[in-house]
């Protein structure tokens, strides 16, 4: 599939518009958040029994790994990111096969994430409908609003660009950026818990694809009961699993 350019005037993913405070950090907690607030008095997190000491240790580990991987991301230059995005786009053509009527939820790049907007535009030109996640209510599942390369955009929660209008769509495919991902497909994201909340209530469950830089592979993220693994993972060096 030929990669199409996005419309001029859209902010790049690493500008202040993408990030969330001056350094691109979420202004809310950077801890992993499950679907509901934890209630350690009852040893429950999001309705799951969790040992408080275990959760504390896992949370500490994830915060450290998140910081390490984010530093690696930011150290990469634009050419390296563009090369990896092209490699991932080729893999997505094989895994997703964009076609008329297929609804693909993708993402607007923030925090030095790989920019797939060219692939999104190409998929849209092939007849697929592309949607971006929109936080309607904080700490709740996101909704997906249709995006086109020339649609009007506005600032959403944390100043992340979102479509100003358009249809709300139910995705057949969800493409989720990862900071890290383990061999079982569990992703380390930005820590807000939005993808896990959202995927937990999707019925039927969409095909999920985690997208990350070439260094994103981890032995484990120490998954918790609410973590939802990706069906496929594609990294910037061409690594994919399961094998497609």
TrEMBL record:
| Chemical reaction(s) catalysed | (6S)-5-formyl-5,6,7,8-tetrahydrofolate + ATP = (6R)-5,10-methenyltetrahydrofolate + ADP + phosphate
Give a yes or no for keyword Nucleotide-binding in this entry.
yes
InterPro entries registered for this protein in UniProt = FTHF_cligase, FTHF_cligase-like_sf, NagB/RpiA_transferase-like
- The record's region (Disordered) falls at 1-31
Keyword terms, alphabetized: ATP-binding, Ligase, Magnesium, Metal-binding, Nucleotide-binding
The top EC class is ligase
Keyword rRNA-binding in annotation: no
Domain of life where this protein originates:
Bacteria
A single GO molecular-function term is: ATP binding
Which Pfam families does the UniProt record give?
5-FTHF_cyc-lig (PF01812)
- Tell me which Gene Ontology terms the entry assigns under biological process: folic acid-containing compound biosynthetic process; tetrahydrofolate interconversion
Q: What is its EC number?
A: 6.3.3.2
Coiled coil regions in record: none
Name its co-factor(s): Mg(2+)
Instruction: Indicate the family of this protein.
Output: Belongs to the 5-formyltetrahydrofolate cyclo-ligase family.
Q: What is this protein called?
A: 5-formyltetrahydrofolate cyclo-ligase
């Amino acid at each position: 599939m030929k990669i199409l350019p996005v419309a001029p005037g859209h902010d790049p993913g690493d500008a202040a518009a993408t990030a969330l405070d001056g350094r691109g950090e979420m202004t809310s907690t950077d801890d992993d958040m499950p679907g509901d607030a934890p209630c350690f008095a009852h040893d429950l997190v999001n309705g799951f029994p969790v040992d408080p000491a275990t959760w504390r240790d896992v949370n500490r580990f994830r915060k450290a790994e998140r910081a390490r991987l984010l530093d690696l991301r930011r150290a990469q230059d634009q050419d390296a990111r563009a090369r990896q995005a092209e490699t991932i786009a080729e893999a997505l053509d094989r895994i997703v096969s964009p076609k008329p009527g297929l609804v693909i939820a993708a993402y607007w790049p923030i925090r030095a994430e790989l920019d797939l907007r060219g692939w999104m535009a190409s998929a849209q030109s092939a007849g697929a409908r592309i949607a971006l996640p929109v936080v309607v209510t904080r700490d709740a599942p996101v909704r997906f609003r249709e995006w086109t390369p020339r649609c009007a955009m506005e600032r959403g929660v944390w100043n992340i660009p979102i479509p100003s209008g358009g249809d709300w769509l139910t995705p057949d495919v969800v493409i989720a950026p990862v900071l890290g991902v383990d061999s079982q497909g569990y992703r380390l994201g930005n820590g807000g818990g939005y993808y896990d909340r959202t995927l937990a209530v999707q019925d039927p469950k969409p095909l999920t694809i985690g997208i990350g830089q070439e260094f994103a592979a981890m032995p484990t993220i120490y998954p918790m009961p609410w973590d939802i693994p990706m069906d496929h993972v594609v990294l910037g060096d061409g690594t994919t699993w399961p094998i497609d």
